Amino acid sequence: MTDRTTESAPDEKPKLKEYEGEGITVTFEPRRCLHAAECVHGLPEVFDLSRRPWVLPDAAEAGLVAEVVRRCPSGALRYHPADGSVEHPDIPTTVRRTPSGQLVMRGGLLVTGAYGDRPEARVVLCGCGASGNQPYCDHSGPCAEPDDDVPGRR
Ligand code: SF4
Ligand code: FES
Question: What region holds the Divergent 4Fe-4S mono-cluster domain (predicted)?
């Protein structure tokens, strides 16, 4: 198990942390995490914010880890099974707009932004224009209000 941080030049690649396990590798893109806590509630033995590293992919069966990663609405978490399989996006693709304008999307997506065209299966896009991590929501705008119907809280 390793905990590597990939530092990249601006506008080239997103900064990802990689947590490598025997059966599955989990990557984490901190700027996209909207703290929905699906991960820590879903598999606390794997995802534990009080621990370093906070992700231990070998602490549960790889299929279970993948299932919980797929619950991450923002796509901050992704997984790469050791057998080379890939995440199958939801069919049909779904889009939900929250009251503050976030676009919560799941499906076979190609998101264009500062890092070029990125294939995605789960994203929360900014609809208010305030995010500093466009096109993704970063909870800078009205979506941060506690009474909004957003996928997760700071
Ligand atoms: S946005 Fe994803 S990584 Fe962040 S807390 Fe929620 S489920 Fe976990
Ligand atoms: S909708 Fe969340 S920052 Fe814009």
Answer: 19-79
